[in-house]
UniProtKB/TrEMBL annotation:
Matches recorded under InterPro entries: P-loop_NTPase (IPR027417), PDDEXK-like_dom_sf (IPR011604), PDDEXK_AddAB-type (IPR038726)
Protein name: PD-(D/E)XK endonuclease-like domain-containing protein
Lineage: superkingdom: Bacteria
Native source organism of the sequence: Verrucomicrobia subdivision 6 bacterium BACL9 MAG-120924-bin69
Domain PD-(D/E)XK endonuclease-like, first and last residues per copy: 644-899
Pfam family, one: PDDEXK_1
Length: 934
């Protein structure tokens, strides 16, 4: 028998260092079998559920190899196992399930007076915010409570720390935490009346008064243990046995319980070799590089630090003829049932008796489980929308559109009512039976399993809601009930079945426990490795550091240790490790290489590493027509010609003449009914409309008062939001509006400064709408005329400088100056917008003394980081002239009807429909599958 001490008051730990000579999970299995004849009374704590499953497999294999009986231990994460190590004092209430806690928070927030509620999400003094959707706010506060509770830190303690250690912080910050303590007191009361207890408080009671069971606990590579769990472990009658996944030489990096010492790992040299680092430019380059690695390294495991990169990597693997297995599985939010339930929730997000919003009704009607299987429904919808541009689904009685709207309402069978959870549950269950009851689902397909598991999860959540006796559930709106169900099921994982020969893909932190000799790591950049928290509105990085709560140093240590295990177990020719470091993440935002790549380096070593990270591998150019998941090749261009285009169409032609043909010549557009929330393009358009309304108001646009400008913008944002989404927008919109407010706050600050410096708005895009668009004659290189139309966002005049400027508002995440936005460093043209706007300017202006030589072309940047908001430097004059020369060349090609070239489309910025038409995308695998047979 291995270590098994008798009850001692003070635990004396003797960590066992397993080393890196072999994979850590296999080594753990051997150690357990060598030290315990009977494992049934052993509790093995692992870092994650995947590690637990792998350990069970290794125990079975090793026991079979040794020809010995196997009595399996209980294996789980520490959060799951500690509650089984004690019996609590009599009369202790059970721990409230997460859904119960969330609803208790929602109930407590609903009881909170509005003036107090507004303090929970506070910005600088004098700046207000929209109220957060109750569901998301409750979820955020529950997550906050769980995090702090595990660290044994109360909201009141945070308030004390803020007051004592952060005197420079606004007084409102400490008040906010005191208010959170007050709200939590109400949550505690709600739970107690319903027969439940807060889990963290219950564990605190167990740690102090509980009776420990007579079992042996083994901590297998657990490097992070929260204080509440430490207290419970310290009260065990037998001290835990600690297994450290590292050699004895790394002892200084761990405490006696195997937890990491951050200061050690912050300074430790990673031990990387330059050949292990592969610097690339974009996500597509990264995906192709990983596919090459997987092809060259049979049996390799791919680890992905940024989950948003997974889809692109899997697509690249398919193109190379390789299937993949994503260990995390797919979230239910990606499935057909969840998308249907979201569409229904949006559809009923309205007042009783009010017609549904057009966007939500149209989306639901096109959904395959709405009316999407009837092609006629979409035809009627398109025809009605083209003629009426509706905001509501309220076509005149007797029309075809009205008939289909009625059929949709009957099929769904839900109305925007307020009633008990049990009342809603019955109606929602009836709807799901009506929609899915007679479908035959093919469970051999991922989509079939997704549908089955989603419906089972919904049934479970609905039953749980009905069983809960909480005041909040006595009267709930239909949309809120559906969104509660969605909140509980959307993040649930549907595992993928393992397939022979598939490339295994895991999360970054799971890689340390993998035993594949060859591994490649994707997205090895800051923000992913290590993850850092700086902008958390409750617990930003500096506050976490003061509280000692999962701060950035701890995250850095965790990732540095994980990298050490990955490299150490494959050192000395035991395996291969490759790290792919892109310059841009999947969202297109620039990212820096992970600091772990430079850790501990100095002098020449540091210089060599930096050089290696700057030498980007060029992406191999592929043929234009690529078969992606069952595509149908590119659609040939016709002979049609045009003699009138918009300013922005030049950008389309530069990136892809074929794309230009489909969009500008044939006038095709992807049908995208906004599902009650904002797409990235919709988000930018909303800000443009609000800023345009500011420019239209001749009084407010003269203001130099930042606060006055922002108050106008907030009011206009609220007006446009209500007009578009109604009084009950879906929860995600609330967060998007918070982001929009931040951009508009930055606009107010910069605009006030610009007006004070003499820049006066003379023309704004919204003043005359489409009717105010102007056009000019652009002569091509052959002297022919192409009509170019458009209207700049705005034009400013500075009386002091006697200069004009054409202004274009940009809301992209990272600012880019006009020169680089128009012409890349290598001389490739990607836009001609601003120089063409200058040519349009006198047509738009119509009055005033115009001189093109006294006109600047600038961007008004409103990026994600508000501190970077600014008016850019003017576009270079020589570049402007060269752009106009290029415009003449493009005009000649347009007039000649040169549409054949496909060019290079960015899949992250181009509709899948147009990607498919250009032969650069196909029908996604999940859609191509026959999901159901009716």
């Amino acid at each position: 028998m291995g270590v098994a001490g008798a009850g001692s008051e003070e635990l004396l730990m003797n960590p066992v260092f397993l080393g890196w000579e072999e994979p850590v999970i296999g080594h753990t299995a051997k150690w357990l079998l060598a030290n315990f004849e009977d494992l049934s009374e052993v509790r093995v704590v692992v870092r994650g559920s995947r590690a637990g499953r792998r350990l069970l497999e290794k125990l079975a294999v090793e026991a079979d190899r040794q020809k010995r009986p196997l009595f399996l231990p209980k294996i789980a994460t520490i959060a799951r196992i500690v509650d089984e190590l004690f019996t609590g004092p009599s009369g202790l209430l059970p721990a409230a399930p997460e859904l119960t806690q969330k609803l208790a928070w929602m109930d407590a927030l609903c009881r909170l007076p509005q003036e107090k509620k507004s303090k929970l999400f506070q910005t600088r003094e004098g700046v207000g915010r929209n109220g957060q959707p109750a569901l998301l706010l409750a979820q955020r506060l529950l997550t906050l409570r769980n995090e702090l509770g595990g660290e044994e830190v109360s909201f009141a303690e945070v308030a004390r720390v803020m007051s004592e250690k952060m005197p420079e912080a606004p007084e409102i910050e400490a008040e906010r935490w005191e208010l959170l303590e007050e709200v939590f007191g109400e949550v505690r009361n709600i739970l107690r009346k319903a027969g439940w207890m807060d889990p963290a408080e219950r564990r605190a009671v167990w740690a102090e008064k509980g009776t420990p069971q007579q079992v042996q606990v083994v901590l297998a590579g657990v490097v992070e243990i929260r204080p509440i769990f430490m207290k419970m472990l310290e009260r065990l009658s037998r001290p835990p046995q600690v297994l450290v996944f590292a050699p004895e030489s790394q002892r200084d990096g761990f405490d006696e319980m195997g937890r990491l010492r951050p200061e050690f790992w912050a300074k430790r040299k990673a031990g990387l070799e330059s050949g292990q680092i592969h610097a690339v430019v974009r996500s597509a380059d990264q995906a192709e590089k990983l596919a090459q690695m997987a092809k060259s390294w049979p049996g390799a495991t791919l680890a992905v630090a940024d989950e948003k990169a997974v889809a692109g990597i899997r697509e690249a693997l398919r193109e190379e003829g390789m299937e993949s297995h994503w260990a995390e599985g797919r979230k239910m939010r990606e499935g057909r049932v969840a998308s249907f339930l979201r569409a229904v929730a949006d559809y009923v997000s309205r007042k009783p008796g009010e017609a549904p919003a057009w966007q939500s009704a149209a989306l639901l009607m096109r959904h395959p489980d709405g009316m999407g299987v009837w092609i006629k429904a979409s035809e009627v919808l398109d025809e009605y929308a083209e003629r009426n541009v509706p905001e509501k689904m309220d076509p005149p009685s007797g029309s075809l559109a009205a008939d289909w709207a009625k059929k949709l309402a009957n099929r769904i069978g839900l109305e925007p009512t307020e009633e008990s959870a049990s009342g809603h549950a019955q109606k929602v269950s009836d709807m799901l039976v009506r929609i899915y009851g007679e479908m035959e689902v093919n469970l051999d397909l991922p989509s079939g399993r997704m549908m089955r598991d989603s419906l089972q999860k919904i049934r479970k959540v609905v039953a749980e809601l009905v069983a809960l006796k909480l005041p909040y559930l006595e009267k709930v709106r239909t949309a809120d009930f559906l969104r509660m169900v969605l909140a509980e099921m959307e993040d649930e994982q549907v595992p993928e079945p393992a397939r022979a020969g598939a490339v295994e893909m895991v999360g970054w932190l799971e890689l340390a426990e993998e035993d594949s000799p060859s591994v490649a790591i994707a997205s090895f950049h800051e923000g992913s490795v290590p993850k850092s928290v700086t902008a958390d509105e409750f617990l930003p990085g500096h506050v976490r550091e003061l509280l000692g709560v999962n701060d950035n140093q701890q995250r850095l240590a965790r990732d540095a240790y994980a990298l050490a295990v990955v490299l150490g177990t494959r050192a000395k020719k035991r395996g291969i490790v490759g790290m792919v470091v892109p310059s841009f993440n999947p969202a297109g935002d620039p990212v820096k290489p992970s600091r772990l790549l430079l850790a501990g380096l100095k002098g020449k070593e540091l210089a060599a590493r930096v050089l290696a990270l700057t030498e980007k591998e060029e992406r191999e150019k592929k043929p234009a027509t690529v078969d992606r998941g069952g595509g149908f090749g590119d659609v040939a261009a016709g002979q049609e010609k045009i003699d009138r285009v918009s300013v922005t169409a030049f950008r389309d032609y530069l990136k892809s003449p074929r794309f230009f043909y489909f969009q500008s010549v044939l006038g095709l557009k992807a049908v995208e009914d906004e599902p009650g929330e904002l797409s990235p393009a919709g988000f930018g358009s909303l800000i443009h409309r609000v800023v345009g309304a500011f420019g239209k108001d001749k009084k407010i646009r003269e203001s130099v008062d930042e606060k006055e400008i922002f108050e106008f913008l907030k009011g206009e944002l609220d007006r446009q939001t209500r007009e578009r989404f109604g009084d009950q927008p879906k929860a995600a919109v609330g967060w998007q509006l918070e982001l929009a407010e931040e951009r508009l706050e930055a606009f107010a600050r910069v605009q006030a400064r610009e007006r004070a410096e003499g820049w006066q708005i003379v023309v704004a895009e919204e003043e005359k709408g489409k009717e105010g668009r102007a056009e000019f004659e652009l002569k091509d290189t052959k002297g022919r005329v192409l009509l170019v139309h458009g209207r700049p966002d705005r034009m400013d005049w500075n009386e002091k400088q006697k200069r004009w400027r054409v202004v274009d508002v940009k809301t992209s995440s990272e600012p880019k100056n006009p020169d680089r936005a128009h012409c890349e460093a290598g001389g490739t043209w990607c836009d001609l917008q601003m120089p063409l706007y200058r040519e349009l300017a006198p047509k738009v202006l119509k009055e005033g003394v115009w001189d093109p030589e006294k006109c600047d072309l600038v961007y008004f940047h409103l990026p994600k980081d508000g501190e970077k908001a600014a008016v850019s430097k003017p576009m270079d004059g020589d570049l402007v002239q060269r752009a106009l020369d290029k415009a003449k060349e493009v005009a000649a090609d347009i007039l000649d009807g040169k549409w054949k070239d496909i060019g290079e489309l960015d899949p992250e910025q181009t509709s899948e429909t147009f990607m498919a038409l250009c032969g650069q995308a196909g029908i996604p695998r999940e859609i191509a599958e026959e999901e159901v047979a009716e």
